[in-house]
Design brief:
There is one protein chain. With about 400 residues, the chain is mainly alpha-helical. The chain has helices at about 1-10, 20-70, 75-100, 105-115, 120, 125-145, 145-155, 155-170, 175-195, 210-235, 240-270, 280-295, 305-325, 330-345, 355-360. α3 (about 75-100) runs antiparallel to α11 (about 240-270). The longest helix has about 50 residues, at about 20-70. It is globular. Mean pLDDT is about 75; it is low at about 1-15 and about 355-400.
Amino acid sequence: MAAVGAGSSTAAAGPGAVSAGTLEAGTASAGEELCVRIAGHRRLKYISLAVLVVQNASLILSIRYARTLPGDRFFATTAVVMAEVLKGLTCLLLLFAQKRGNVKHLVLFLHEAILVQYVDTLKLAVPSLIYTLQNNLQYVAISNLPAATFQVTYQLKILTTALFSVLMLNRSLSRLQWASLLLLFTGVAIVQAQQAGGGGPRPLDQNPGAGLAAVVASCLSSGFAGVYFEKILKGSSGSVWLRNLQLGLFGTALGLVGLWWAEGTAVARRGFFFGYTPAVWGVVLNQAFGGLLVAVVVKYADNILKGFATSLSIVLSTVASIRLFGFHLDPLFALGAGLVIGAVYLYSLPRGAVKAIASTTTSTSGPCIHQQPPGQPPPMQLSSHRGDLITEPFLPKSVLVK
């Protein structure tokens, strides 16, 4: 009778009624699903960390290796152009795949996005010019500075990005971030003092002064371009692949102009691919695909993870430079690099980050102790980005992430 009564009660409640047992089962199922999602997200974050570290360090090391090999030296301007061409072609293929292989739809889409909406397209001309200049400056800087020194000094882009965001976007920084910027500048100054003091032997064809000027100019252009992007492209509906295709088009054209102006005669005489070796092609491929790969994985990486990845890449570049290039690590460089690493990590802790970290690390009985009720966002979304991710100082050049 009790069973009949219970069944009658359920039936009387109507078809929309849910029993307590069903509700508990549904809650448990939702909790298990959330647990799986959190575990999967953590794995993706570790993968993102590895990708960011490897890309940040390998590009610098590979450029340094290719530029210091004995024999004919390739033209850096041709490498910049080839990287832009490959990046543009890759984005075109990805857009083609998004249109399910329909050539007509792709052509109509590109005509609308690039030609009809030409004002939005032209907005990318200025940052593309800056990025093309920045790519060429990086070759100059890495050709004249040890890879580890460049990696440390290049973190000045965090300082320039922060200053431009304050000046152009009226953005405020926390006291911790201002302190970390001061620490960053101090660390870079120490590293440059060590470099000027002659920290170890250097090849005769290297000019540390030119390298320093190039890396400072590159940091200034990086900071301005990132903030400029956010300022002019807020509200834009273009996808990451479309924006990178547009950048690739402008970058290729501007790169060819730079090639003609800087090395046109030599390239015409010796050939576009003069001095290209497998190592050079590795550099070109890294430049072309590295940024696009990071654009895919960076959505799983919050500010803290990107700051940690940058710090690890500095350590990796230093260790690799000792083994590959005979870099001399002295206490002064170690002090400066340590200050920069600490500054990068501190700067990557935005307001409220400590509370966010605490909410996910106080668990003592597994990752699912803080399960959210069904329908609520999972606690794994810790990203604390400010505006578009392109303004984050840890991202590589020419990466647009919506």
